[in-house]
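Side project, low priority. Logging it here so it doesn't get lost.
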Amino acid sequence: MTEAEAPGWVGRRVSRIEDGALLRGRGQFVADIVRPGMLHARFVRSPAAHGRLLGLDTEAARRAPGVRAVFTAEEFRPHLTSPELAVAMPAGAIRYVVNPRVLATEELCHVGEAIALVVADTPHQAEDAAALVRLDIETLPPVLDPEAALAPGAPQARLGCADNLLANFTVAYGEVARAFETAAHVFRDGFRLHKGGGHSVETRGVLAEHDPVDDMLTVWSSAQMPHRNKGVICAALGRAEDRVRVVAPDVGGAFGPKFVCYPEDVAVPLAALLLGRPVRWIEDRRENFVATTQERDQVWEVEVAADGEGRLLGLRGRLLHDHGADTPYGIALPQNSATNLLGPYVLPAYRLEISVTLTNKVAVTPTRGAGRPQGTFVMERMLDRIADELSLGRAEVRRRNLIPPSAMPYRTPLKTRDGAAMIYDSGDYPACMADALRLAGYEAFRTRQRAAREAGRHIGIGLSNYVEGTSRGPFETAAISIGPSGQVVLATGASAQGQGTATVLAQVCAEVLNMDPARITVRAGDTAAIAQGLGAFASRQGPVAGAAVLQAAGQVREKALLAASHLLEAAPEDLELVNGAVRIRGVPADRLSLGQVAQALQGMPGFPLPPGLSPGLSASVAWQPSSLSYANGTHVAEAMVDPETGKVTLLRYVVVHDSGRLLNPALAEGQILGGVVHGIGHALLEEMQYDTAGIPTTFGYPAYRLPSAPILPRIEIHHHETPTPLNPLGAKGVGEGGTIPAAAAIAAAIEDALRPTRIRITQLPITPRRLRALIAAA
């Protein structure tokens, strides 16, 4: 096979180009970066869930060994444009402005809120000195529960707000009242759903350094959105955009919580400016439990209406959403929950009233799935309820309600949070489910189940379907440049957090330029590399940034062929681009490297460029998706339950997933696998607990349980590929789909294993204690 006949790079299981450095210990995480004269920061944090800060004594801390400064809100105030960070997504339903504060004064609203910043020569000296800061706090009654927050006479979660109702809005369409009046069956259920934190391997970190020569402030941050962080820092510090650079170096996982710009992202750079020395802060794991955002509780009360054949007629109810103490992200999470409830089903009428409540807990922002697992859980559990009540198979009820492929693109009556129509672009939902059931041996399971019960083993099987909106805009950028060295440099506003962004974008570029992806240098997550960018969120890197790369690479290719046609005196259509060189078809010896073409496009003093060509071999594109593209799939879980102990053992897990065209199947499977593991934690293990004063009692991993290898089942991943027409790659996002349906499938499997007891699982996580209580009550 000749070079020109080599297969394309997109769609291949290319090994990650990032891994060489990481496996050899050459990664550059924030904690690995050391600057000359660097100091270390430690935050003094609120020990109270709610209280008035009456006094703050920092004298002992200032006199402690190695301490260079202790900053309070009063000392920061003259250097900030505002003591608050205006980072919330705007929404008309929000009733109160509750922005995060750089450092707290007067009122403390959750355990872990930053009050002061200690800077010292070493991390240990900073930590010891922070412990010397004395706080005089008048404790106030905390608000810890979204239902209690709205009860008459409830204490205020924030003294500046008249009540705890942050927002109230309704998602509705269709003739809901008529659907329930004419329904053959109406069933009601309540759900209490919990979601913990992201718990990435790397906690948050910020390093800031000011160069007085060019007045440049450089900030290294383990962030998902460095360009957004830069905007917040510039606004807070009153600095021009060309005087701030934000770099997201290697990031050891993010999963949503690093999407947010935090008070620490402003406080550390300001300390570096005031001290004239680099300052670094690395969050410890205890801080991570109280200062890094999480997803919180939701309480649902819903009714579903169905006809005599189990087909959905309508759904109505109420959602209470625990929002936490402030608003760094807006109210998109409950909106996602409400719209994702629809899933891949035909639902003729729907009405959900949503109340978003303030509580005295750390702020609520997305964790992998961003509210979608909760909405999916409610719909899938209600479908199981219909099936059980009507003595129908759970899979059969879903078959009767799935949107058929002939209806694609399917325009739902819902709107996304930006007001656009929610349109499912492509997919074959019945085929996905049929494949999952076949691969899981669903029909033959009952025989195995009966044999297991005779042997005293309680096994069950459950399934869940889902749809996920991916590829969120409004844009993403890519710039490709080739210099006389021949090095191809790809810069993008997308940012990496361990998911293989550099590899997949290099593959797309390599596909167009017909060269090995390993020869392409990818610069992601650096505001100095490219002026605009949005970063990592909403399963968007491959389809949105990839589309920008595809178009930019195409422009570079066309320019290289046109320039080479002048240099080689051949028509552009007679040329081909192979392995980093342009050559005449059929005459391999007549060739120019891309470096030589780039050299020619740099120009010579006094000599014109070839006609029709501009200087430089480069191109820049900001690609804007017209709307979301919707991934989908089906999960089937098999579980064994010990009724005596409530222990759940997952035996097998089957995924059939459709993310459109797969850019790199290996990377997609890694994302799906990781998402399933997150979903298992959501379903069975992860739970933040508080005492009556609002103090977390799960401060570490002995108390807060995460999924680990011994509890994971065999997870089998299979693919459908229905390309989306909404981007030139045909790809959809893949990062969160593994998480969204997992809890519903696992809950269904547990119920099925204990079918003789007729228990009903409506609360997450499904802990042994809760499961034993359900069994005892049954």
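Brief comment: The CA atoms of residues 661 and 731 lie 5 Å apart.
Revisit when time allows.
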